[in-house]
From TrEMBL:
Protein's UniProt name: diguanylate cyclase
Top-rank taxon: Bacteria
EC number: 2.7.7.65
Domain (GGDEF) ranges: 198-331
Biological source species: Colwellia echini
InterPro entries: Diguanylate_Cyclase, GGDEF_dom, Nucleotide_cyclase, PAS-like_dom_sf, Rev_trsase/Diguanyl_cyclase
EC category name: transferase
Catalyzed reactions per annotation: 2 GTP = 3',3'-c-di-GMP + 2 diphosphate
Length: 331
């Protein structure tokens, strides 16, 4: 009995045909209920199978695109790139993949999320699977996964991380680099200047009689002056120059590939511009000046800190000589 029933399942052609039909129905229903696009093309890139996902997400009549070339049915597809991808998959008989990070989408399918994204189209991960059929040779099955949410939250997360990284380098009050980042930059510029035998100069600057300004006009006025003066100085620099708040009312500028003459010229310009700036607080005119110390890297320094010490000494000299001026020192 057992033997005859097992024989009937595999050897009875009618039963086998019924089984195959049932399996096809199951496969079709599963494919049509999946929240993944399934599109199968033959070796001439004609569409052989297309599931309901693509019907739901496009206004195309799926029955009309079966048998048509994929690049005619979906003209938005990158033909050169996708042809190479499909051919590679068929020839090597190995799967391929394309993530939304490489290409945000292949198919222009509008996304249905109530979230705002940078693109009007659904972000997609696409997998390319080689399918071997007995009669018609190799096909490729393209699986289209909707990853709009992943893309949206990943992009938001990356932006937050970028903002945090920036914030960790920036002084909260003046928006110029903070001391930690500035000092790390100097360390790098020092190493570069030594390695490539390039010149490197430093300007240390400090607001004059700032305590008096705070005492006379209040701390808020002092803060406003720090913001305005650093914005003014930033506007006078080249993009390669690295401007930072060294602490309190002391600032510092790294000048890569700049010798002492270039650094002195810039320092004079900064000094004059700050002194000439028309700063007011509560309708009162403020006379703000700065003192600057300039130093150039020479063969004598053995580390970047010695360059800071040199520029700091020059700054002290400028203060001592009467403020609102530039002084320089060489080792
Ligand atoms: N408003 C404000 N004041 C600050 C800030 N950081 C430091 N200060 C003040 O800056 C003043 C610096 O005073 P001093 O070091 O005596 O220097 P100075 O009065 O500028 O005198 P010289 O440098 O010799 O010209 C102090 O009163 C600090 O409280 C800040 O972020 N905001």
């Amino acid at each position: 009995m057992g033997k005859s029933s097992s024989l009937s399942a595999s050897n009875n052609p009618t039963k086998r045909a019924v089984n195959e039909q049932v399996i096809k129905q199951i496969n079709d229903q599963v494919a049509n209920q999946l929240n993944t696009g399934i599109l199968v093309v033959d070796n001439e890139f004609n569409i052989v199978v297309c599931n309901r996902f693509l019907k739901v997400h496009t206004d195309k009549d799926i029955n009309k695109i079966i048998g048509h070339n994929i690049f005619l049915a979906f003209p938005e597809l990158p033909e050169v790139w996708l042809t190479r991808k499909l051919n590679g998959c068929m020839q090597l008989n190995t799967p391929g993949f394309c993530s939304w990070e490489q290409r945000h989408h292949l198919f222009e399918l509008p996304h249905t999320r109530p979230i705002s994204t940078d693109s009007e189209f659904m972000a997609q991960n696409c997998t390319f699977l080689p399918i071997n059929t007995d009669e018609n040779g190799i096909h490729v099955c393209i699986l289209i996964e909707d990853v709009t949410d992943v893309c949206h939250y990943q992009t938001k997360l990356q932006k937050t991380l970028d903002d945090l990284a920036l914030m960790s380098r920036i002084d909260g009050l003046t928006q110029v680099y903070n001391r930690k980042h500035w000092q790390e930059s100097l360390q790098q510029e020092y190493a570069k200047a030594r390695r490539y035998n390039k010149s490197l100069s430093l300007i240390m600057l400090d607001l004059d009689y700032f305590k008096l300004l705070n005492d006379n006009f209040g701390h808020q006025c002092g803060d406003m002056v720090l913001i305005e003066v650093s914005a003014l100085i930033s506007s006078l620099l080249r993009v390669e120059d690295i401007f930072g708040r060294y602490g309190g009312e002391e600032f510092a500028i790294i000048l890569p590939e700049t010798n002492i003459n270039g650094a002195l010229e810039l320092a004079q310009r900064v000094c004059k511009n700050v002194a000439a700036a028309a700063l007011t607080y509560n309708e009162q005119t403020l006379n703000v000046t700065i003192s600057l110390g300039v130093a150039e890297l020479s063969k004598h320094e053995t580390n970047y800190e010695e360059l800071i010490t040199l520029a700091d000494k020059a700054l002290y000299q400028a203060k001592h000589d009467g403020r609102n001026q530039v002084s320089s020192l060489t080792a």
